[in-house]
Write a structure and sequence with these properties.
Its main location: membrane. Keywords: Cell membrane, Membrane, Symport, Transmembrane, Transmembrane helix, Transport. Pfam families: Na_Ala_symp (PF01235). Helix content is about 75%, strand content about 5%. By secondary structure, it is an all-alpha fold. The chain has a single domain (about 40-475), classed as Amino acid/polyamine transporter I. The longest helix has about 30 residues, at about 355-385. The strands form 2 sheets. Strands 1-2 form a two-stranded antiparallel sheet. The model has no long low-confidence stretch (mean pLDDT about 90). The radius of gyration is 21 Å and the shape is globular. It is built from 23 helices and 4 strands. α10 (about 160-175) packs parallel to α19 (about 390-410).
């Protein structure tokens, strides 16, 4: 069995029906338990973006949002959406929306828990699943397992997807050899990640809003130009999602599977990476950053992924596989699914502009995701090696990430996506089970926040009053205002 076949085999086991059901089920459960906070607290999600200010130990709320969004908004928003449509039909878009709406509840819980049990490591806040698993569940072995999987996933399995898509887009648009794109991206990434988390936060704060807004404005332009077909496209999405479309009804199961799979890959809700960025923020109450992270899920999927889906579907620049080696729809014969779908979509409206525009957008999307992966990998190395001089371990994982970034740019897209899916799936399995077990604490945090907002008092988190143990940072009040 060669490497590609082995990776595909493992991917099939990790991303089977049980994980699809776990992702959807967890989202439903958290939505009900929080009384659909993703609707009730929508205004608060936006206002909390500007509340937490940076300190000597932590980044601002907005920087935490930007860092998490930088991880969420990546090649999954362009190539991932195209893959979902190609393998699951237009109906996959609906299931991406569904998992974003439901996943916002999961994102709140995991981010709030990360804030509750964050710690200071080398003068900076660190946190995430490993920390709240150890301190909240009292299972250090489980925390070590998640940290090891996260280092493997973020440091080695996932970076190649981002660099592969950058290389493919620039090769298509500007005929740049993939090895040259790979070297350039790897070198630039190295300059940034060796600057530490504060530099990552500053770069993300500047780049992420700019790249997402520009991309969505392009989608709006395409929608305005072809506005008469918008109702038709939405009708097609809903018919395909529920198996009532004459052409795509037979692959409704694939629409669900690929919509959830690519939705989780893109928005990361419940995956366990977002809370690691959330833990780095300086806030007065854990729920503040929980709401901020829930909002980032909306921006990623309901905003950027929808932009890609509408551009591709409105312009008809897609194919849909039948799962048997053939096609249910072949509107652009011979074109491989991925960034080429979006490049061709923009090109139909603005000839000569599409390939370059998408290549540049994809560079920003994927590059900020690589920066986030670096931070997530470092956080988990710091957890595994705390008290044992983790700097050499962090340096080693940075070197490994840079190596895999170049490796991904010169290998096949299929291999890179399969490797990345394994990483995402393993983290999701471990993290979703943990936050379901810790849901009671997450709900305590939410209710405490709501009570303080209703009373109009300044936000303040007192874990002792709430009966939450092992919260070192909050108990010692060792953070700087």
């Amino acid at each position: 069995m060669d490497l590609h076949a082995l990776v595909d085999y493992l991917n099939g086991w990790v991303w089977g029906l049980p994980l699809i059901l776990l992702c959807l089920g967890a989202g439903v459960v958290f939505s009900i338990w929080t009384r659909f906070l993703q609707v009730r607290h929508l205004k608060g999600m936006v206002t909390q973006l500007w509340q937490g200010q940076a300190s000597a130990s932590g980044i601002s709320s907005f920087q935490g949002f930007a860092m998490a969004l930088g991880g969420r908004v990546g090649t999954g928003n362009i190539a991932g959406v195209a893959t979902a449509i190609a393998m699951g039909g237009p109906g996959a878009m609906f299931w991406m929306w569904a998992i974003a709406f439901l996943g916002a509840g999961s994102a709140f819980i995991e981010a709030a828990l990360a804030q509750v049990w964050k710690e200071k490591v080398d003068g900076e806040y660190r946190g995430g699943p490993s920390y709240y698993i150890e301190r909240g569940l009292g299972m250090r072995w489980y925390g070590i397992l998640f940290a090891a999987v996260a280092v493997l996933s973020c440091g080695l399995l996932l970076p190649g997807i981002q660099s592969n898509s950058i290389a493919a887009a620039f090769q298509s648009a500007l005929k740049v050899p993939t090895w040259a794109s790979g070297l350039a991206v790897t070198a630039f990434l190295g300059l940034i990640i060796f600057g530490g988390v504060k530099r990552i936060g500053r770069v993300a704060e500047l780049a992420v809003p700019f790249m997402a807004l520009g991309y969505m404005l392009m989608a709006v332009a395409i929608v305005v130009i072809d506005w008469r077909r918008v109702p038709e496209v939405f009708a097609l999405i809903f018919r395909s999602a529920f198996g009532t479309d004459a052409v795509f009804g037979g692959i409704a199961g694939s629409a669900i599977a690929w919509g959830v799979k690519r939705g989780i890959f893109s928005n990361e809700a419940g995956q366990g990476t977002g809370p690691q960025a959330a833990a780095a923020a300086e806030v007065a109450h854990p729920a503040q950053q929980g709401l901020v992270q829930a909002f980032s899920v909306y921006v990623d999927t309901l905003g950027v992924c929808t932009a890609t889906g509408l551009m591709v579907l409105l312009t008809g620049q897609y194919n849909v596989a039948d799962g048997k080696g053939g096609y249910l729809a072949q509107l652009i014969p011979g074109v491989e699914h991925g960034p080429l779908y979006t490049q061709r979509a923009v090109d139909t409206v603005l000839p000569g502009f599409g390939p370059g525009f998408v290549a540049v957008a994809l560079f920003f999307f994927a590059f900020t995701t690589l920066m986030a992966y670096a931070y997530y990998a470092e956080s988990n190395v710091a957890y595994l090696m705390r008290g044992r001089h983790p700097k050499w371990g962090i340096t080693a994982i940075r070197a490994g990430l840079l190596g895999m970034t170049y490796f991904g740019s010169v290998r096949t897209a299929g291999l890179m996506w399969a490797m990345g899916d394994i990483g995402v799936g393993l983290m999701a399995w471990l993290n979703l089970i943990a936050i379901l077990l810790l849901a009671k604490t997450g709900l305590k945090v939410l209710r405490d926040y709501e009570a303080q907002v209703k009373a109009g008092t300044p936000l303040c988190f007192d874990p002792v009053k709430l009966g939450i143990p092992n919260t070192v940072c909050w108990n010692d009040r060792d953070r700087e205002a």
